[in-house]
Design brief:
This protein is an all-alpha fold and 505 residues long. The protein is 80% helix and 0% strand. The chain has three domains: 169 residues, Growth Hormone, Chain: A, CATH 1.20.1250.20; 55 residues; 272 residues, Growth Hormone, Chain: A, CATH 1.20.1250.
Length: 505
């Protein structure tokens, strides 16, 4: 997915489309991808890990091959939909292969930490290499690279076997009733989150229709799941306070991490800076992520994970606060430290959260594993989309506020503005002999500068909001530590007993 999602402006140019139209590539990919992992847990247990692995990687390779021959945007959108289906198991397979290389004692620590580190740097690494690919062959070069990676993965899967798991007859008829409803609901939500900022939330009717249908579909699916003995999603387990806190924490972290995925990249794009001018920043982010993964693995092995969430929040808050002082002269090299802090904070949180959540799900019985996968992946996928959508919408609103405040004084009655207009008039005097055209161009030039200032101020407001959210969450966390709160064994046992009761009922 990264090959497409991080290069939307360039792909839009290659297809002769607007950015809003090209963003449908992301929407089509995420629509099936965001929810399919819920069902894949049962499919893997039903048909075995080997068949699951081979079918998944062959399907993804076939989808990547078809992308090479795409010549128009409409066909590309259709293929991205099927690519989203085929790619759904890829992250899980990558983690399983990474964990296979470690002894059992290191699987909950180093294996999880390094696997999440590798998956986290994927997006940034794609930005690092995309510039050369785009120069070489635009969309076709990106698709060919994606195909090559898929074929390399296929060769590795055929050569290396995972430890087989025992097959179980876990699929039921009702799974194929409730899952389509969940897929429709979460898929429409993903589309709305991807395109909401582009078409604006209240400007087009289809956004409201999609939202209403999504809510109705999810409610119908949950109503079915509530009365099942072996549900896809165990609602009784999910609604326990410990699990709810876990889910809310994951979503909050995805929101604050949008500062990096949507903030810094968006700011530089508004300056017209291309990927090749930000390569050094990408290298700094990748380096900080790798360092954080190694540090997190060592801390988890030493069983010192209690303070990792607080440390992660402190790093993210500090980095976002530094970014909130950006100006029109800010360049990638000015954000090395702040973006490295945010990358370090992000990778310090996810591995212990995944390890703790997996342990909680396993202690509650095998039937809750699909529910845990739903919580974790939905919080990561939809949380990332929601964070980017909220960040982008906030920037748009604040940019309009700052624009009205800054551009309004651009009147010739203002002596400072009049001096700027006279200076620009003199610059254009040799190019535009017409006084009216020259005056209009001077006013437009000043307005563009003010608009750029408004954009920077809007991003600064968003960075500051992220910093305050992270700091506020950190304060709540520290307060809980001071008051002596920790999820006790009694609470964990309650979750386990609740899950067992629901599975036996």
């Amino acid at each position: 997915m990264n090959m497409t999602s991080v290069n939307i402006p360039q792909i839009a140019g290659a297809f002769g489309a607007s950015i809003s139209e090209a963003t449908w590539l992301n929407a089509a990919y995420m629509a099936p991808n965001v929810s399919l992992s819920i069902l894949l847990v049962k499919i893997r247990n039903q048909f075995g890990l080997r068949m699951f692995t081979v079918v998944s990687i062959v399907s993804f390779s076939a989808a990547a091959l078809l992308h090479v021959y795409v010549v128009d945007l409409r066909t590309a959108v259709i293929l991205r939909f099927f690519a989203g289906i085929a790619a759904a198991p890829m992250s899980t397979l990558g983690m399983l292969y990474m964990m296979e290389a470690f002894p059992p004692a290191l699987k909950p620590t180093w294996a999880i930490s390094l696997s999440l580190t590798c998956s986290t740097i994927g997006s940034t690494f794609t930005r690092l290499i995309s510039t050369s690919l785009l120069d070489y062959g635009q969309w076709k070069a990106l698709s060919t690279m994606e195909l090559g990676l898929a074929l390399c993965s296929l060769a590795a899967v055929l050569a290396l076997h995972l430890t087989p798991i025992a097959r179980e007859n876990v699929l039921e008829v009702w799974d194929f009733v409730s899952y389509p409803l969940l897929a429709i609901g979460f898929g429409l939500i993903a589309i709305v989150l991807v395109q909401g900022t582009n078409y604006w939330w209240f400007e087009v009717r289809w956004i409201g229709v999609c939202s209403a249908v999504a809510i109705a579909s999810i409610c119908a699916a949950l109503l079915i799941e509530l009365h099942r003995s072996r549900p896809l999603i165990d609602l009784q387990w999910l609604t326990h306070p410990i699990v709810l806190r876990f889910a809310v924490t994951l979503v909050l972290f995805r929101f604050v991490l949008s500062e990096q995925t949507a903030g810094a990249y968006g700011l530089f794009r508004s300056f017209g800076l291309l990927g090749e001018q930000s390569r050094s920043l990408y290298v700094a982010i990748i380096g900080a992520t790798i360092l954080g993964g190694l540090l997190c693995g060592a801390i988890m092995e030493a069983k010192r994970t209690a303070l990792l969430p607080a440390l992660a929040l402190a790093l993210i808050s500090s980095g976002a606060y530094v970014d909130s002082h950006s100006t029109v002269l800010t360049r990638p090299e000015n954000m090395y430290l702040s973006q490295a802090l945010i990358a370090l904070g992000g990778i310090l949180f996810l591995p212990p959260a995944l390890s703790a959540g997996t342990a909680l799900a396993q202690s509650s019985g095998p039937m809750t594993m699909s529910s845990f996968v739903a919580v974790f992946l939905l919080s990561q996928n939809l949380g990332a989309l929601a964070g980017s959508a909220a960040f982008g919408s906030f920037v748009v609103v604040r940019e309009r506020v700052h624009s009205s405040r800054l551009i309004e004084p651009v009147l010739q009655s203002n002596p400072i503005v009049a001096q700027q207009l006279d200076r620009i008039n003199n610059v254009y005097r040799g190019v535009l002999p017409d006084d009216r055209l020259r005056s209009a161009e001077a006013v437009a030039n000043v307005a563009r500068r003010q608009s750029q200032q408004a954009t920077v101020l809007a991003y600064n407001d968003a960075f500051l909001l992220i910093a305050l959210c992270a700091a506020g969450t950190l304060g709540i966390l520290v307060l809980g530590i001071i008051l002596g709160y920790r999820p006790s064994r009694v609470e964990s046992t309650t979750v386990t007993n609740d899950a067992r009761v629901s599975s036996n009922s």
